[in-house]
Amino acid sequence: MKTDELREAYLDFFASKGCVRKPSDVLAPNDPTVLFTPAGMNQFKREFMGLGDPTFKRATTCQKCIRTGDIENVGKTPRHMTFFEMLGNFSFGDYFKREAIHWAWEFLVKRLAIDPNRLTFTVYQDDDEAFDIWNKEIGVAAGRIKRMGEDDNFWPAGAPTHGPNGVCGPCSEIFYHGDGIEEVEIWNLVFTQFNRVGPGLLEPLPNKNIDTGMGLERAAAALQGAKSNYEIDLFIPIVAAAADALGVDYPKIKDTVDGVRIRRASDHVRTLTFCLHENVRPGPEKQGYVVRRLLRRAVLDAYQMGRREPFLYTLAPVVAEAMKGGYPELADSVPRIQHAIRDEEERFLRNLENGMRLLNDTFRKTKAAGSDVVSGGDAFDLLSTYGIPVEVTESLAADQNLRIDEKGFEAARVKFAAVSRGTAEAADVFAVGPLDSLKEAYHKGTAFLGYTTTEAPAKVIGILEQGRLADSAEVSAGGPPIALVLDQTPFYGESGGQVGDVGVVRGPGFTFQVEDTKKENDFFLHLGRVVEGRIAVGAEAVATVDADRRQAIRRAHSATHLLHNALHKHLGKHAQQAGSKVEPDRLRFDFSNPEAVGKERLQAIEKSVNDLVMTAAPVTWTLMPIAEAKTLGAMALFGEKYPEVVRVVQMGDFSRELCGGTHLDSVGQVGLFKILAEESVAAGTRRIVALTGRAALDFVHQEEETLGNLSANLRVPAGQVGDRVAALLEEIKALKKQAAQRKPEAAPKATADDLLAAARTAGEATVVIASVADATVDELRVLIDGLRRKREKGLAVLLASSGEGKVMLVAAFSKDLVEQGRNAGQWLKKVAPAVGGGGGGRPDLAQAGGKDPAKIPDALELAWAVVSGELGGA
After folding, report:
1. Which distant-in-sequence residues (6+ apart) come within 8 Å of 8 by Cβ?
2. For position 769, what pLDDT does the model report?
3. Is 561 among the annotated ligand-binding positions?
C-alpha cells in the first residue's frame, strides 16, 4: 500500500465511524506554548478542555508535525524524522476505550490485512480495563500484551508521580514486527480519563477523551516491508535526488557516514519545504531558528562531502512531487521555496569556509592539549562569528570523541547574550570590557530622562565599534552596528520586559540612526549606524526618540498593570506576574495559575481592563525606599532584585506596582485592549497575549472586514454567517459523498511478480520491458525496486506509462550489469526519441519523458532491440 493510499484509507475508515474529517492544522500555529505543531491533538485543545462546539464530538485528521527533540538521531536511526505526518482519531467526551481499541484492531487487521501475529501491545500497568478489552474481547493472547509503567504508558509521561496536575491518562501502544524489520511502535492510544490533583492522586474526569496518534511513515514502512522510513515510496525519490545532487551512489554508501548525511538532508529539505510553504523562514529566533538550524546542518553535511555550492534548493521540486498526493498546493510555492533556501545556503556558505577551518583548528588544539573538552567560549565564537550552531559543533565534536564545555558556553552566552534580534549580538559584545574603562571616567553612567521627555540634548561620551572604544565613526556600508554612549538620554534601554527605544541622534555634521537601545553597567547603549557625516567623542547632539513608537509601547506597558489587576480580581491574588514582553501596542503577560482561564473568565478579564481604561484614571509615579513601597502594598515580581530606592507606578486607586518602565499619563490613553490568546507556558504558568491602541483597533477592523466580506459573499446578515457556513459545509460534504459514489474504481496496476512472469531473456540477463497503465514516475520506480529485490543480479528493466498526454520512461540495470558497463541513461537516450522525448540519468537508474503516448509500443520494441543486442552478445 502506497503512503498516499494509507493516509486516505485511515481517514475514510474513521469517517465511517462518525469522526468528522478535519484538515491538518498549520505547522506554526498561533499558539505560544509550542513552536511547531507536535501532534494531532494540538488543534483540538479547546475541545479537550470542554470549550468547543458541544455538538462536535469526534474527529479524524492527518496532521503535519515537526519535532526536534531527537534531531541528532535523524538519519542515524530508521524512524527519527523532524517532519512527519500523524494520523489521529479523537473523541471529546464521546466514545472511549472500548471503541478506540476495537477500531484500531479492525483497521489494522481487517482494513489493512496485517497479520495479527505481527502485532504486539502494551497497556499501563494498572489499566485492567484496556488489558481485558485486548485479551477478552479482541482475543489477543495475554503473552502478547505487556504492562508498562507510568514513564512508558501514561500521558504525560510520569504524570501520576511527577505531575503536572491536570488532565492525564493511561496509554495503550501497538507495535509491528516483520521479517528483517525491528519492532516499531506504529500507534498510541491515549485515554485521558483522570485529573491529577497531587502526587498519586487521580480523580476520574466526568468527560473522558480519546487522543490517538499513528505515525504515517512508520505504518507505511511496515506495510511496504521497508526497514527504514527513508525506504518508503514517498522518501525514495527524495533520497535519490539528494544522492544525485551530491554525486554519490546511495546504495553503495547507504551504511556509511555519508549515508546518514544523505538521509538527514532528505529529511531536512522536506521539513524546510513545508515550513517555507507556510512562510516560516530562516531566522534568529523561535521557528525561524529551527528552520535555519536544519538548513545549515544539511549544508554543512554537504560541505563535508565536498560540496561547495548551494544544492539543497534543487531538492524542493522533488519534495513537492513526492508529496503532491496529500499536499498538491506545494507545487505553487516551489519557486518561492527554492529562492528562500538558496539565499540562505549562499549566505551560510560565505562564512562556512573560515568557520570550518577554525572548528577543525579548535578540535586539533583541544586534542593536542590532551583534553576531550572543547572550550565553551570557542563554541560560542563559532556561533556568534560564523553562524555555526552549537548543536552542530557538539555533533561534529562527538564524531571525534570530544564534548563541549556546556557551562562555559552558557557563561559566554550570558556574557554576550545570544542573538535574539538583529542588534542583540552587537550590544552584548559592547557590554564587555570597554564599558569598564568608560566607567572610570563617568562613574554615574548615563542619566535617563525618558520618563518626562522624548527629546533631550546630550554629549557623546563613548563610541564602541566591534568590541573596542573608538574616537570616531563614520558612514560605512554593511557590517555590524556600533554603539553610541551619551551622558544623558531620553532613550529607554531594554529591561523589565520592555523593548528598547529607536530614533535618531543628530549633531553638527552627523546623523546617527538608533535601531535599538540596551542598558549595561549603568550606561545606555544606542545601537545603530552613522547614516550621515562623521561622529566623534565629545560631540554635542540632540537625542530624539521615535515618539509614536514610544507612545505605543507606553500603551502596552500600562495595559499590563491593568491586566494584572483584572487577573487578581477574576482569578485571585495567586495570579502573580511571572514575566512579560512589552512591544509597540502588543504585550505578552505570563502569570501563575494552575489551569486554563476559560473563555468566559477571559472575556470578563478583557472587559475589566477596558472598564478601567474608560475611567481615564491618572497615572503617577514616585521614588521611595523599597520598605515604604512594600508597606504601601506595591506589587513586586517574585525573584526580582530591586534597589533600595524604587520607582512606584500608581494608576488611580486600583494599581500600585514597582516598575521602571515608561507609562502613560492616563489609563484612558490605552484606547482599546484586546486579548488574542491565553495558553500554557509551563506547569502552573499561563500566558495572555493582547493588543492595545491602534493595533487593537486594526485587529477589530480586520475582523469586521472579514465578517463583512463573508456576509456579502454569503448574502446573509452578519449575524447569520455562522449558520450559513455550517449549511454550506453540509452541502459540500453531501456533494463529496455523491462524487465518491460515482467515481469508477481504478484498474489494478501491475506487480513485480506480473512483470517477471512476462520477462524475456537476453544472454544470461532477465529483461523486463513493459507498459504500466496510469502509473506515476514514483510508482514506476517503486516497481523497479520491487523487481530488484526479487532479482538482485542480471536484471534489465524499462517501464513506460502515460498520463495527461505525456509519456514517462524509467530504466534500470542491476549492480552487476552496471559493473559490466551497462548504462540505463544511455539506454533511455536511444529509446526516448521514439516517443518524442529525451532524458537520461545514472547508469543504474534513469528516467525520461515524451510527448507521444501512441508511440509507446514502438519505444518498447526499440528498447528490446537495443538491450538484447548488447546483452545477447555479452
Report:
1. none
2. 95
3. yes
